[in-house]
Structures are given as structure tokens and as C-alpha cells.
Amino acid sequence: MAAGKRKAQGGKARKPAPARAKSVGLGRAATSAVRTSFGRFCWYDLATTDVPGSLRFYGELLGWTIRSTDMGPMGAYHVVSAGGAEFAGVMPLASRDTPPCWLGHVGVPDIGTACTETTKAKGSIHRPPTSIPGAGGFAVVGDPTGGVVAPIQLAGPPPRDLAAASVPGLIAWNELVTSDPAMAGAFYAHVFGWTIHPVELTGSPYWVFRHQGDDVAGMIEAPASPVPEPASWMVYFHVADADAVAAKVAGLGGAVLIPPFDVATVGRCALIADPAGVTFRIVRPEEE
Fold it and tell me: Whole-angstrom Cα distance, residue 22 to residue 62?
């Protein structure tokens, strides 16, 4: 589960509000049991220039448990868990030409078919199908607007929807920021079978990706720019107290880019950069 060629995450610091919690992803993540199905984010990788520093930063900030494993030719791989659920890995960046990043893996029944459909949908293959010893296979693909994800075919049961579990430290939501929502939406609909649904927000249009009726991710249009930036995926980590978590960031070597703020019917959010510059958000979901 390794990151391939990847554009920098995050872009300009701003406040894109997630979709309304009571009707879409974050609300369901706060109340639903873990589901099992393809078409959902089921694993994440952090590829970074400073593995020890990243493990310390996220471990102390989010309360992760970490175990290290030898992946042979792929080197050391550090598996992280929250609330007893393993959900991500941390590894060295494969190339200094690639920015450090969070990379989400979406479960698919057949990795070869996912790559074929990526090409048909005018996407790009950053890393062709690659075997994971004893686990299955994955690839790294890009949508036509620059967003990067990793379809993954697991050898075991279909992957779980980790975002459905209300556990601090897990990823609660995934959000695509793109200059062309129509083009990006068509790509993900074709490759992963997602459906696209507009939702009401204050200030900005917002779309929710759904799979088999369940919310799996959000999408927002990037601000207009003479030279549009490539799209990027942002992860939201579930926290019990956004203000308390944000207050710890600077002491661990990170930076709070946008301090905690409230999003009506969603919760309290903040935008953070880790010591390597990778951006992510934290969210304390609003009580139902």
C-alpha cells in the first residue's frame, strides 16, 4: 500500500464547510455501525519525509497505537490503529520528487478492471497494479482534474467503511477539492460506481458521493484561479475536542492553518499541517 506520484495536498487555507451532518457523511459517521462493502475508503497511507517525526506527531495528537512490520523489499511499514481498528500505514516517501501526502484507498472487486475503467474515464495511472504480499493488490490513479486515489483489491473479505465508526483518531470524512466538479464527478461515478448528490450549504456549492445509498465522500469546487491547481483529497480526523487537539499541534511541530470554527449541523473543525507540511482537518461532530 504505497503512495505513487502525487500532487501536494491542501492548497490555500480556507474554510470549505462539509456537508450537513444530519443528511450526509459526518452525521452518519457519528451514529452508524461499521459497514462492509466495496466502493468505500477502506485504508489510508501517509508517505512522508520523516517517519519517526510523523509517528510521534500523529500518535500524540490523535492517540494512535502503532505497530511496525517488515514488508520485505518494500521496507518497514508502520500500521496505525485507533479504538482497536487498524486503518492506515506510515512509510517513507518513495521519491523526493513527490510531495508527502495522505493517500486514500477505495475498495474494488478487481484491480485490473479499476485501472482499465480509469483509462476509459480519461484518468491516469500513476502506479500500475501492484501485489501486496498476503493481502491483495493496489494501484494509484489520478482523476482528470488531478485528484489521486488508490483502488485496492483485498484478498480477504470486502473492506470495511472505517469512516462509519464513531471513534476519535479514525478518519471521519474524505473531501475532494477540484476546479471541475462535473469532470471529477463523472470520473468517480464511472470508476467506483459513486452517485453524485448536491446538498444545501451556506456560501459554497457542495456535492456528496454516495455508494449503494451511503455517503462516502464530499466534493467542493476550488476557488477560481488564472492557473487552476490540481485537485486534492483532504482527510478529516474524528476528535473528541477540536480545541484541545488544536492546542497541542504547535508543541508537536505542526501548524494550525485555520483555528477551530463551527459549521452548523456538522461540528467544530480546524485545518492543520503536520511537520512535513501535509494538510488535514480535524472535526468534532455535532451531537445528534
Answer: 25
Find, among 213, 237, 101, 61, the residue nearest to 165 by Cα: 237
Rg (CA), the chain: 17
Residue (of 174, 287, 191) closest to 236 by Cα position? 174
For every one of its 288 residues, what pLDDT tens digit does the chain have, with 9 covering 90 and above?
Answer: 444 433 334 433 444 444 433 334 443 433 333 344 589 999 999 999 999 999 999 999 999 999 998 777 667 899 999 988 899 999 998 777 778 999 999 999 999 999 999 999 999 999 999 988 777 899 999 999 999 999 999 887 655 555 555 789 999 999 999 999 999 999 999 999 999 999 977 678 899 999 998 999 999 999 888 887 899 999 999 999 999 999 999 999 999 999 999 988 789 999 999 999 999 999 999 874
The cell numbers describing 226, all together, are 488564472
Whether the CB-CB separation of 57 and 275 falls below 8 Å is answered with yes
Strands 85-92 and 41-48: parallel
pTM (predicted TM-score): 0.85
Do residues 175 and 221 lie in contact, with contact meaning Cβ atoms separated by under 8 Å?
no
User: What count of other Cβ atoms lies within 10 Å of the Cβ of residue 251?
Assistant: 9
Which listed CATH number (3.10.180.10, 3.40.50.11740, 1.10.3660.10, 3.40.50.1820) goes with 25-285? 3.10.180.10
Cα angle value 271/180/261 (rounded, 5°): 20
Residue type, 278: V
Rounded Cα distance, 90 and 135, in Å:
17
